[in-house]
Structure formats: structure tokens, C-alpha cells
Amino acid sequence: MTGAEVEVLIPTRNRPVELATTLAGLAAQEHPFDVVISDQSDGAPSFDTAPAQTMLRVLRAAGHRVRTVVHTPRHGVAEHRAALLSHSTARYALFLDDDIWLEPGTIARLHEAIAELGCGLVGAAMQGVSYLDDRRPAQLAPFERWEGRPEPERIAPDTPAWDRWMLHNAANPLHLAEDHVRPWERWVPYKIAWVAGCVLYDRAKLDAVGGFDFWRDLPPEHCGEDVVAERRVMARFGGAGILPSGAYHLESATTVPDREHNASNLLVDPALDDVGTDDSGTPGVQHGGFAALRPQQSHHAEPAGAQVGVSV
After folding, report:
1. For the chain, percent of residues with pLDDT exceeding 70
2. What is the pLDDT of residues 94-139, one digit of tens each?
3. CA torsion sign, 291 to 295 to 297 to 300?
4. Distance of CA 142 to CAs 138, 194, 227, Å?
5. At what angle do helices 225-237 and 77-86 cross, to 10 degrees?
6. Predicted TM-score of the model (pTM)
7. 37: phi then psi, degrees, rounded to nearest 5
8. In whole angstroms, what is the distance from residue 291 CA to residue 289 CA?
């Protein structure tokens, strides 16, 4: 069976309600894609519920190839992403968090955008609808369209580009779409610092910067792994966010409560080693720059005896 050009990769843990909601969003997409769900729940897999199984059946009935994987023991979120990526051979890999609902048409827009722009990644920023009436003009100010193909950028702390992180706070993406998407435009590419939760990668370009294989150099409890991968891709190949986003955050509590060990502050990165560091703890973000911390030291051995079960 030939797979789709886009594969949706969903890491999940202890989120049966949220995962079912995320799958419902996928089931409403009218676009070809495959799905891989990798679970690290403490008990029964999050996909092993009646609502989630119903959505999986709906997806399969619509012609999507769906695979579910139990991936244990846990070695941290970066390793989980690396393992998910190893299950996919699609040209484009869409990493979708398990607490995001996508409005109809979102995957089609992302696919169209990355194919047309030819960059390394395209993201749809999470939107918090509970903040819909909270308009933040100062945080919208860094917005800037990409005119033409996105260029490679090194996103560094203490530079104007770093301030773009504010664009994705609260309901800012909804307000940006209201302000900047013209009636005749299907989507608008814009400059980003990074995007959390819903990012479509050109798989070859992600592989070219090492994917998420840096997990071996991180302690098991960490955060910010997505920012590391995105900054590496954008430094070589460029990247963009698109409006409208179409990605809605379910606003559940995080399953990664320990934010002390930020991947961006723990890794030596030859491609970005001149961008400085940031330990300021930016509110609501907690992603910093790169610091030379314990080079050549690995926090992990290779996973041994991983229990993997696949349902096709």
C-alpha cells in the first residue's frame, strides 16, 4: 500500500479525552494523509477508549492508513518524537500534539503552503479561544509577512526576531488572521520564532539537521525539544507560520509539568553556537537559547527492551 505524502504523528500520554477530540478534528479533514499515534500512558493507552476507537474507525473508513503504537519505557519527549518519526516514511511529517483540534481544511492549507514555499517547515500556531476577547496590540506588533520563499534565519535571543514568540500567545493568532488575511487569500505566510503543537516538516530537511536524535544528550525530564528542531531547520532551510491557523488548543493542563530542563539551554549546537543564551524564563514560553553545557556527555544509553505494539 502506497502511503500518503503527509503523515500525522501524534505523541500522547495520559490524555484519553483530549486525544479523542484531536482525532475528531482529523476525521473532519478532507485531505489525504496517514496517521501514527504513539502512546506512553501510565495505564491503558489513550487511544484505547470507545470515543478514540470510533474516530480511528472513521479515519480508516475514509481511506486513511492509521497505526497505533505503545512506546515504552519513557526516555523523554524528544526521544518520543524521534521514535515516532522512525515509523514514518512520508515526504512530509506533521507533528500534532494530543491537545489540539484542527478546523476543517487545516492540513490541506499546511500541505499546500509547504509545497509552494519550499521551506523546511510550516506551522499552525495554537489558539486559546478562552482569550478571544483579550486583544494584545503590543504582542501583535512583531508580525511580518514572508514575501516570497522564506529565507534561512538564525533566531537568536535579544534580537527583534526573538520577539515573535509573542505572536502565538493566548488568542493572538485569531486576532492576527482578522487583521492580516485578505478576503481573497487562502493563507498568509509569516515570520516566526517557532511554532508549538502543530508543525509540518519537510522530512528530508528535518533529517538533514538530525531530526530529534539529540534526545540522547538530554535528561529524561525536559521540555523545549520542538524549539531545538525548528530552529535548526529554519537556520538551514527557512520556515513560516500560516494564517489562518485553524489549530485550537484544548487548554488542558500540561503533561510535562517539569520545565526546569529546557533543551534549548542544554545543548551545544554548531549551527547556532553564536546566538547566545536566554535564561530569562519568558512568560508562557520558557524556551531559551543554546548554552555549552557538558559537551560530549550523554544522559542516555540506547533504549533496550522497548515494548512496542503496532495495530494496523
Report:
1. 79
2. 999 999 999 999 999 999 999 999 999 999 999 999 999 999 999 9
3. positive
4. 8, 13, 19
5. 60
6. 0.85
7. -115, 125
8. 7
